[in-house]
Amino acid sequence: MNQQLAQHTLSQSSGGNGALLVGTGLALASMILIPALATRIGLGASLTGALRMALMKAGNQAIRR
After folding, report:
1. How many CB atoms lie within 10 A of CB 50?
2. Which of left, alpha, beta for 42 (phi over 0: left; psi -120 to 50: alpha)?
3. Could you tell me the CA-to-CA distances from 50 to 15, 23, 25, 34 in Å, in that order?
4. How many domains, the chain?
């Protein structure tokens, strides 16, 4: 019984790690990659900010699920 409980707990925590990894990746992209790419292709500051906010919201949703 304890072994089954431990396996169930382990499987639940590993599912959360995947969501955390996706959320962290999206946050990294919004903080570093989006501004760098926007500068490279010449996007305005307001559009860059909007893209960053969209990615941060997506990262937040990924962590919550």
Report:
1. 13
2. left
3. 30, 18, 18, 10
4. 1
Report, as an integer, the average pLDDT of 14-34: 78
Which of 42, 37, 40, 41 is CA-nearest to residue 55? 37
pTM over the 0.70 mark: no
Spatial distance between the Cα atoms of 63 and 28, rounded to a whole number of angstroms: 14
Say if residues 56 and 32 touch (Cβ distance below 8 Å). no
Confidence category of residue 29, pLDDT binned at 50, 70, 90:
confident
Residue type, 47: L
Nearest to 63 by CA among 24, 19, 30, 31: 19
| Host domain of residue 7 | 2-64
